[in-house]
Amino acid sequence: MLRLIIVDDEYLLRQLIRNIIDWKALDIEVVGEMASAELAMRQLESLKPDIILTDICMPDIDGLTFAEKIKGRNPDTKVIAITGYDNFEYAKRGICIGLDGYILKPINEEELTECIVKIKKKILEENRKRNEIETLSIFKREAEEIVKNYYLTKLLESDVPEKIVNSQLMEELALETSPMVWIVVFQWKTNLIAKRTGNEELLDCEMWIVNYCKEKLKKMVWVHGTANRLIILDPEKDIMPETILKQLQEEWKKEFECPLYYGTEVIYNQEKSIHEGYIEAVNQLNIELVNGENKPEDIWRWKQQKKETKQLWDLNELKRLQYCVEAEDLEEVEKVIDSYFLKWKDVTLDDMELLQVQLLNIYFYFYTSFGDRCIDAVAMQYMNFYENVKHAENILELKNAFLIGCQALQEMLRGRETAADSYKLIYSMKQYIKENLDDPDFSLGALAKAYYMNSSYLSRFFKEKVKSSFVEYLTEQRIDKAKQLLQYGNFKIYEVGEKVGIYNANYFGILFKKKVGVTPAEYRKQYEK
């Protein structure tokens, strides 16, 4: 219920106002009656009224001065003045103060009811709009996190052929201009966490690491990557990565009683791209997953092996395998895998370790290539593949594990829809467009800036998800809103055009007839009948 107080120095008038109408029927509660403005001011904080009925002429503080103080403290509170003076000077001052209504003495039941109902509608409409704005604001902040995560993932996991990451976002993150960027990729075994707790959701491992790193790093950015991997980037110099990581591992073991794996890389003076640095960090992580510990000598040995061997997967072979998996051609997948494993004969233990890491890298490469088509199942499937590769005792078992992993990828790709985040992002964009229909300068560029996107990329993304170009969708929404205004409002035709962002009346008329089939005036007449 809305809350109302009555302020008047005449007791009988206060009683009349309380009893003359059924306040409960109007869904309004009279929460207080005061004989003076001074007394009312002292109780405003505790009573929190939505509406104040106040007499103009009172002995201590007159009603207009009282209203001015109220509006200064809380502009949303509605003030209705009661006066026996039908005086223009009072009315003029009341307008400047921002009074919401006048009631002339002697008070008439119908006039008071009409005024209160009008004010109530105004309050409810303002509350509705405020709630909509707050909801959209919250949703927008959530969407911004999705956008940031999405494009940082692109920056990390793809050698992007065009700059799809908006420069505004990159300037905020300061990753491409910093003299040093530290990249860390974390992974843990959720099955061990679940075994200890009985439920893997009881402990939020990712946020534990994020909160720990926030205490140590000033400019840290974190990304939830594919395969349930947490990625930390920090463009701050004068840090000691290895010291921080060792301390973090020790604290993690105390908390979760299981290993925490990581791969790390430091880029100095843009000597390589963020993507290249990330790939190095992933390679180190995969080495650790195979060997079990972060040992610099293992990483160095693996890099030497990688340089010396000629048996690593050729990029053309890798692309061919990727296309076969996407095309669900299992027979061709088997041929490519057979051809590759024929190169591995008389393998040593070191060879097995090298091949395990190579296969983990290939499998992870597939996930980054397939994108959000199978993002929801990435973590579980990747860990299943890791377990099969890790426990393979010979080259045949390793080959079978890889084949089974590729089959699982095909199953995930079959019938998969776009990730929920894309739908959430598009919904937020549609709401943002709706809020800006009256802006004649609203454009694809404005939407791209609001969502940290490159305009050309947003154009393709929007058309793919909405099945309509941005301009077509914006026009449709403007025409739909114009139809509502013509049907239910009393605006002139040119005013309707302005309210939907089209200030040229002739163009508005032509566009409306093209989309609806009749002119705006003809459309309105249909509903007047």
UniProtKB/TrEMBL annotation:
Gene3D superfamilies (alphabetical): 3.40.50.2300, Homeodomain-like (1.10.10.60)
Residue span, HTH araC/xylS-type domain: 427-526
Key words, A-Z: Cytoplasm, DNA-binding, Phosphoprotein, Transcription, Transcription regulation, Two-component regulatory system
Superkingdom classification of source: Bacteria
Response regulatory domain span: 3-120
One Gene Ontology biological process: phosphorelay signal transduction system
PROSITE patterns given in the database record: HTH_ARAC_FAMILY_1 (PS00041), HTH_ARAC_FAMILY_2 (PS01124), RESPONSE_REGULATORY (PS50110)
Name the record gives this protein: Stage 0 sporulation protein A homolog
Protein task: May play the central regulatory role in sporulation. It may be an element of the effector pathway responsible for the activation of sporulation genes in response to nutritional stress. Spo0A may act in concert with spo0H (a sigma factor) to control the expression of some genes that are critical to the sporulation process.
Example of a GO cellular component annotation carried by this entry: cytoplasm
Entry-linked InterPro entries: CheY-like_superfamily (IPR011006), Homeodomain-like_sf (IPR009057), HptR (IPR051552), HTH_AraC (IPR018060), HTH_AraC-typ_CS (IPR018062), Sig_transdc_resp-reg_receiver (IPR001789)
Listed PANTHER family: HISTIDINE KINASE-RELATED (PTHR42713), TRANSCRIPTIONAL REGULATORY PROTEIN HPTR (PTHR42713:SF3)
Coiled-coil ranges per UniProt: none
Subcellular compartments: Cytoplasm
4-aspartylphosphate PTM sites in chain numbering: 55
A GO molecular-function descriptor: DNA-binding transcription factor activity
Main location: cytoplasm
